[in-house]
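INFO  loader      accepted 1 record
INFO  loader      residues=65
INFO  predictor   begin
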Amino acid sequence: MHVVDLGVNYKFSNGITIGEVINNLLDENFVDYVTYTSGRGLSYTNQHQRMIPGRNFWLNVRADF
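INFO  predictor   done
INFO  writer      dumping tokens
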């Protein structure tokens, strides 16, 4: 599994920049719980190192004066 993020910015001549980002473009599920036996009995852990949210979008506007 791989995380694919995509982003683009456009800077207008008047100093305004508009940007858009799509995180986790392929909407991969990085929460995969597996069970294991510990000293306290049956436990759960995420098979992946990080929990990454599903696909999400960001839109931003920046003004430089």
